[in-house]
Amino acid sequence: MKHFAFTVGMGLVSLAFPGCTTVDDTLSTAAAPSPAAAPDEASSFRATAEADRKARQTEATITPYPFDTCAVQFHKPFKDGKPKHRRVYKGQEVLFCCTPCVKAFDMNPEPYMPRILAAANAQATGSSQ
User: What does the angle CA 69 – CA 49 – CA 90 come to, to the nearest 5 degrees?
Assistant: First the structure.
């Protein structure tokens, strides 16, 4: 029953946000914050955007994003090869395909970061040798 409710809920999300219609079940279930633990979406978005602005001032300390796909829907390439949104989280650049994805990241960024950091470290190690 839980899977049915999730599937129906995601169908409604895809109707509301047609630019973001694909879902990775393994990542979306891990990334879903509990309602009690979820921060206020508006303040989280503002706080992350402010951190992004500050990080852009010190661009040299930002690790480049290692993929050409969305951070949330990692199998989805950017439209026309260009990301729609950019965030800097703990010194790591993170790129997104659409507004719902950046909001999902702002709500709970930690589940997405291990894959990004591992790829960025591998890319840095490979390019320095």
Answer: 70
96 occurs within a structural domain = yes
Tokens 């290692």 belong to 66
List helix spans (H) across the chain: 2-16, 25-31, 41-57, 99-107, 113-128
Range of the domain at 51: 24-128
**First-last CA distance in the chain:** 51
Mean pLDDT over the full length of the chain: 73
Number of structural domains, the chain? 1
Backbone φ, ψ for residue 98 (5° rounding): -155, 170
- Find the helix or strand (DSSP H, E) in which 95 lies: strand 92-96
Q: By the 8 A CB rule, do 92 and 79 touch?
A: no
Coil vs helix vs strand at 69: strand
Q: What is the DSSP secondary-structure string of 29-47? A: HHH---TTTPPPHHHHHHH
Which residue type does 69 have? T
Q: pLDDT, tens digit, for every residue of 52-76?
A: 777 666 666 789 999 999 999 989 9
